[in-house]
Amino acid sequence: MTTSITQTQPAAASSRDALLSELAAVLDPAGLQTGDAIETRFRKDWYAPLDPVPPIAVARPRNTAEVSAVLAICHRHRQAVVPQGGLTGLAGAATPAGGELVLSLERMRGVEEIDDQAGTMTVMAGTTLQAAQEAARAAEWLLPVDLGARGSCQIGGNIATNAGGNRVIRYGMMRDQVLGLEAVLADGTVLTSLNKMLKNNAGYDLRQLFIGSEGTLGVITRAVLKLAPLPASTQTALCALSRYEDVVQLLRHAQRKLAGRLSAFEVMWADFYELVTTRVSGVRAPLPAGHPFYVLLDLQGDDAGQDAPAFESMLETAMDAGLIQDAAVATSDKEAQSFWQLRDAVAEFPVMWAPNAAFDVSLPIGRIGEFAQALRAAVLDRWSTAELVNFGHVGDSNLHVSVYLPGVALPDFPEHEISEVVYRVVQDFGGSISAEHGIGTHKKPFLGCSRTPEELAVMRLLKRTLDPNHILCPGRVVDLEVVDLD
């Protein structure tokens, strides 16, 4: 099934000149890049096409008023706009297509307030996640969302993509940290609801329209984030297990025994563990290879004197029950970081396994092991020499899969065909094609695998209502066509 929606067309040259003249009038000299002055970094996000094209211009507003002015002008001229944050996205949403204008939030940086009584932070959208984390830590609070791109990704982009990361099992997705938002609609209308209250049922919760919408419904400019108490103690262990059923039992066992203090539960299949410990420089193997599964888990608590014994007791009882075959417990922060290097080694895949097709899916936790087996069989049935690795958060139902075809280089690498195979299996298992990376352009053709026609129709209705001229991120998420593999 294919559904189409009319897309905004590139502006004619005369209209473009008028557009740029109006933009220059509302922005300072550093706020608008055109022609040869456009920096190449604005051409693509992390997931990029082979030949990225330059935008017609880059607008770099300093505040919400300037964002509003820019969008009002673009709305009037029917000029397509793609908002950009830290350009760390993996779904292509921030990569400009031909004739689009980039709206960069990078100059809108800073933590405006940390309210110690409310336990909140008010922050501008262009602030990097790491800067916000450090500001919270300096005030003896924790901003819980954490991901590998923390030094580059921005708060606005984290919210627009509903970022996840390693601590979701305890603290939830980015959505769970957002109490209030300020966003600008396609026509320049500013919606300001910088709420600090956990409870606020005064009508529709409009912030939810923008969280996870990938810039298609509005541009986030400021946010109020919920903070958590700063942990005083961290315990880390790497465990080896024999069966996926034991992985699930260990997860539930740890959650019961640690009483809400389990903050990470990362699972690595044997193929992933062997690959990163033998091929990635600087990554050591704390446990011998050969076990079917490896689990990296963290406890974060407020009392080291109680947390360490509780963590060790949890591991001991799991070993006595036969769930864990072997384990290594970190005895220092440095050793804990070395354990995490195993999981973070995935950042090397684009270099050592190029090209590869990477997938971010979610499944019911109890079926992830079965899914991984079915997926391997389906891929190998199509490409007998393919290599696959599986790893993921699992405790929050998220699995990452990478597929590599030895000897196949670009442009012959069949990424779309691999995606068809993977997403068909995801659909068969009732999963989601995107756990935390978003849809963008990369996954848009397969959205029908995880969403019903009725859900897609409501998404399009929201898009038409909030962006009638289809200027915000045209062609992303639901804007053009969605294909159901059936």
Automatic annotation (TrEMBL):
Keywords: FAD, Flavoprotein, Oxidoreductase
Highest taxon, organism lineage: Bacteria
GO BP terms, alphabetized: respiratory electron transport chain
Domain FAD-binding PCMH-type positions: 50-230
Co-factor(s): FAD
UniProt xrefs under PROSITE patterns: FAD_PCMH (PS51387)
Molecular-function annotations in GO: FAD binding; oxidoreductase activity
UniProt xrefs under InterPro entries: FAD-bd_oxidored_4_C, FAD-bd_PCMH, FAD-bd_PCMH-like_sf, FAD-bd_PCMH_sub1, FAD-bd_PCMH_sub2, FAD-linked_Oxase-like_C, FAD-oxidored/transferase_4, Oxid_FAD_bind_N
Protein family according to the UniProt entry: Belongs to the FAD-binding oxidoreductase/transferase type 4 family.
Listed name of the protein: FAD-binding oxidoreductase
